[in-house]
Amino acid sequence: NRRLVAERILAERKAQQAERLSALGMLSASVAHEVKNPLSSIRAISQSMEEELPAGHPLRRDLEVIAQEIQRLDRVVHEVLAFARPGSSDRVPVDLVPIVRNVIYILTHEARRRGVVIEEDLRAPRATALASEAGLKAALFNLLLNAVSASPEGRPVRVVVESGDAVVLQVTNEGPGIPSEVREHLFEPFASKGGTGLGLAI
Question: Deepest in the core among 28, 47, 88, 110, taking most CB within 10 A?
Fold first, then answer.
């Protein structure tokens, strides 16, 4: 009886959590949509102003900073929308190797800006797994971005892909690690103290 009661309480908690996340998803989508349009306008105007300024003009640097911040906000909006409206979960055979290389290429600039080197160790020419390609890209992007952000300057972040009886994708860094009391909440939205806290939830 105690076990049945405990299972019922757990099921009720999960149902309440799902209901809260559903409401949060709808609210997030609404807010992200409202932010997206003015953000596009700001981007277009700042790009136009930068093109009109001569090379070496002191304001060009300010406009570059604005462009970088718009890009950061745009990423946040995309993360919120991805959380609110997750993509298809249909799984198909996907080769991890080109996905890994593509995500590493996208994050190379961010890694260089932080003084971090991303090292790839692709131990198999192909590593096929049943997965959602879009979901896999989003998961790897967020995981690798977290690793780069937490890595000490001058230290590498390594991405390993192995293929044998199972496909293994591993991202490691030499950061301080995650406190044990935080780990159990990692996959809950907004659990992070930095960023949106949606990366691992997505």
Answer: 28
Based on the number of CB atoms within 10 Å of its own CB, is 98 exposed (0-12), middle (13-18) or buried (19 or more)? Answer: exposed
CB contact at 8 A, 127 and 160: no
| Cα distance between residue 185 and residue 191, in whole Å | 6
CA distances from 129 to 91, 125, 163, 175, 192 (A): 9, 13, 9, 29, 29
Question: 0.90 exceeded by the pTM?
Answer: no
- Mean pLDDT of the residues in the chain: 82
Task: Please report, for residues 51, 102, 127, 130, 188, the alpha-carbon distance to residue 166 in angstroms, rounded to integers and kept in the order given.
Answer: 51, 22, 9, 11, 27
Which residue(s) pair with 167 in the sheet?
163
- Check: CB of residue 202 under 8 Å from CB of residue 82: yes
